[in-house]
Input
Amino acid sequence: MKPEELTRRQQEISGWPVSIETYKLGDVFHCTIANVDPGARLARADGATREEAESRAIEKATRYLKQTRKFEV
Amino acid sequence: MPATLPNVLVTTEWVAQHATDAGVRVVEVDVDTTAYDQGHVPGAAGWNWTTELCDTLVRDIVPADKLEALLGKNGIDNQTAIVLYGDNNNWFAAWAFWQLKIYGHEDVRIMDGGRKKWLAEGRDLSTEKPSFTAKTYKTKTPDTSLRAFLPEVQQAMKSKSAALVDVRSPQEFTGEILSPPGLPETCQRGGHIPGAKSIPWGKNCNEDGTFKSFEDLQALYSSQGITSDRPVIAYCRIGERSSLTWFALKHLLGFKDVKNYDGSWTEWGNLVGAPVEKP
Output
C-alpha cells in the first residue's frame, strides 16, 4: 500500500509549537503529533477521517503539553 | 577527510531496491513505538527501543545475550548488512546503530531521511510483520571507547580533557524546561554540564530528514570549537539524541574520539552535588 494524503503542518497547542503529521493507509487515517523541538512524539491517534484522527491526537497532545512547566532562567 | 557519501548511509531508493535482498535486513526503530504498526518499509523488522534495545532491569544498554537473541530471531548473522531507519530523523535508528557498533557489528547503515523521507516520497508501506528464518549471532567484546560513563564526564568537565556537546533543545540547555514539551520531567535540576556547548541534534539534519553535507556539518561544529583533534563527549537526556550527534561526528565527519554519554541529563540532573550551569 502507498500512503495517501500525507500532510505535515506546524501549529501551536497550549503555547508550544508542534508538528502534526497525518496520512491515510488503506481505510485508516493515522495522525502523529510531535513537539517541534526536539521532535519527540507526544500523541497519536487513528480515525476513519482526517478530522477524527487529528482531533483525537490534538486532545491528547493538549493534555500532555499543559503539564509542561517553564522555569525562570 | 573526503567529502563523499559515507558508506554508513543508504538512500531511500537503495532501500526500495534492496530491502529484501539476501544478506540485507532493514529494521525500523522509532521514538514512537507504535509507528511501525502504522505502516513500514515492506520486509522491515521493527524493534522496540523501550524493551528490546535496553536492559529492562538495570539502567543499561542491551545486554549481549539479549542482543544476540534479538538479531538471531530477526534472521541476522554477523555478516548481514543491517539498514536502520526510523522517525524523528532517525533518532532511535542512531541509538540502535551506536549499540550495534559497541557490540562490533561490521556492516550497519542508516537510511538517510528515515521514515519522514520515505513517507514524503509516497513509497510503499506494509502493515504485515515479516517472518524470518532464525540465525545465530555472536556479539564481540563491547567497544567501550564509544561510550562515556559518569566519572569520565566529570573528569572532562574539570580538566577540559574532552569537549562536551549538549544536543538538547536550547530551552533544556538553559534550564527553562526540564524535559521536551509534553514529556514527563525526568530530572531534579535544569541546566547543563558546566562548559558544555549547545549544539542541538536537529542541526545535523536537513528539512527532509537527511543528514547535512560533510561541509555543512564541519562548519556547524567548527564554529562552536568542536574539532577532530580533541575528544568529544555528546549527551542529551537519555542518550538517544546524542547517539545521532555521535553518529554524525564519528561516521560522517570521521572524528576519531567521540563518545556518547547515555547517562546524560537524567543522570547528571539528578545527581546530588553535581555542578550545573545556567543558562
Notes: The two ends of chain B are 35 Å apart (CA to CA).
